[in-house]
Specification:
Length: 208
C-alpha cells in the first residue's frame, strides 16, 4: 500500500481532509484550502481535481512548490505505473524531498546549483550515490511534467558519478578449493570454468 501524504489526514468527525496551497504571497507565506471526503482516496482525488481545474483556468495563485508538483505528477501517473513503482516514488517524495527545504521551493526559482547542493547534503547524511541519483531522477520526471503542463523550462540536473565495483580476485587457497570442485565429476560447464580460470577466456562464447 502506498504511503499516505502528510497533507491528507482523518478528522475527528470521521471525514478525510486534504489540504492544498491556494496562494503564495510575495513574502513566501502560503494560504491553504481544504477539500473533504469520506475516504482518504476520495479526499485525495478531490484535491487533485481542484489542482487540475485551477491549472485549466489559468489561475496564477496555484502553488508551484516542488513537493506539490511532485505529488500532482505522481497522482497523474497512478494508473500508468506499477504499484511497487508508485510506492517507490511515493517514498522518495515523502521521505527525501517533502521534509527538505528544496521540497518547499517554488520550482520557478529552482536552479541546477540548488539541486546539486541538495544532492551533496543527502550524501553527507549517509545516502549512497545511487540512491541520491534515484531521487534526482524522480525530481527530473516531475520537472518534465511541470514543463509540459505549466511551460516551465526544465533545469539541467547533474547526477552523481557512481564508482564501479572492483572485481574480486580469488586468493590462492580459494582457487585451489575451486579447482578441486571443478575436477570432480568433470562436465562441459566445469571444464569451461576451469579453462577460463587458467586462460582468462570469456565463458559466454565457450558454453553457448
Amino acid at each position: 500500500m502506498a504511503r499516505k501524504e502528510a497533507s491528507i489526514y482523518k478528522r475527528k468527525d470521521g471525514r478525510w481532509e486534504a489540504r492544498y496551497v491556494k496562494e503564495i504571497g510575495v513574502d513566501g507565506k502560503k494560504r491553504y484550502g481544504s477539500v473533504y471526503g469520506k475516504t482518504y482516496t476520495e479526499a485525495q482525488q478531490r484535491r487533485f481535481a481542484i489542482i487540475q481545474d485551477t491549472r485549466m483556468h489559468g489561475a496564477t495563485s496555484f502553488s508551484l512548490i516542488l513537493s506539490d508538483i511532485m505529488w500532482e505528477w505522481l497522482q497523474s501517473m497512478k494508473n500508468n505505473i506499477k504499484p511497487n513503482t508508485y510506492q517507490k516514488y511515493d517514498g522518495i517524495i515523502k521521505n527525501h524531498v517533502e521534509p527538505c527545504s528544496i521540497g518547499k521551493s517554488n520550482i520557478r526559482f529552482l536552479t541546477s546549483s540548488s539541486l546539486s547542493s541538495f544532492a551533496d547534503k543527502k550524501i553527507a547524511a549517509g545516502l549512497s550515490a545511487k540512491m541520491v541519483n534515484d531521487i534526482l531522477i524522480v525530481i527530473g520526471l516531475a520537472l518534465n511534467y511541470a514543463e509540459e503542463v505549466y511551460h516551465i523550462p526544465k533545469i539541467k540536473i547533474y547526477y552523481l558519478k557512481t564508482r564501479m565495483k572492483e572485481m574480486r580476485v580469488l586468493d590462492v587457497s580459494e582457487q585451489k578449493v575451486l579447482e578441486s570442485f571443478l575436477v570432480r565429476d568433470m562436465d562441459l560447464y566445469k571444464f569451461a570454468v576451469l579453462l577460463a580460470l587458467y586462460t582468462g577466456m570469456a565463458l559466454l562464447n565457450m558454453v553457448s
